[in-house]
Amino acid sequence: MKNILFVCIENSNRSQMAQAFANMLGGKNIDTFSAGSKPSGVINPKAIASMKKLGYDLTTHDSKSLDDIPDIEYDYVVTMGCGDACPWVKAKHREDWNIPDPRNMEPEEFNKVRDLIREKVIALLEMIK
User: Fold this and answer.
1) Burial class (CB in 10 A: 0-12, 13-18, 19+), 104
2) How far apart are the C-alpha atoms of 121 and 129, rounded to whole Å?
3) Is the dihedral of CA 35, 87, 41, 17 positive or negative?
4) pLDDT tens across 92-126, in order?
5) Contact 48/58 with Cβ under 8 angstroms?
6) 68 CB-near residues (< 8 Å, 6+ apart)
7) Which terminal CB of the chain, N or C, has fewer other CB atoms within 10 Å?
């Protein structure tokens, strides 16, 4: 079992969608987590709508802080463009995906960010196999 943690600032868009794609595509040997360095406490309705179009119910997720996730060494930690706002988390492997925050984007642009996240999650899962 490999565990993956996706981290962004608010844990309301990017890291939530990445966790959703890893859940959808990763199979039973992947355990996923997401958290934010300054969580908003809510999932962005745009992220919920965007993932619903792909058949995933993001309303089952919660916006969490890094204090709310297990204090373990993760196999993979992926940060999403939060730079210095992403604190250090114990990990065997670490990546930073410089992905723009789609929070204020119109739906078409938001979905382009969603699709970029999906591509990156697919590549990560391929590398893990």
Assistant:
1) exposed
2) 12
3) negative
4) 999 999 899 999 999 999 999 999 999 999 999 99
5) yes
6) 35
7) N
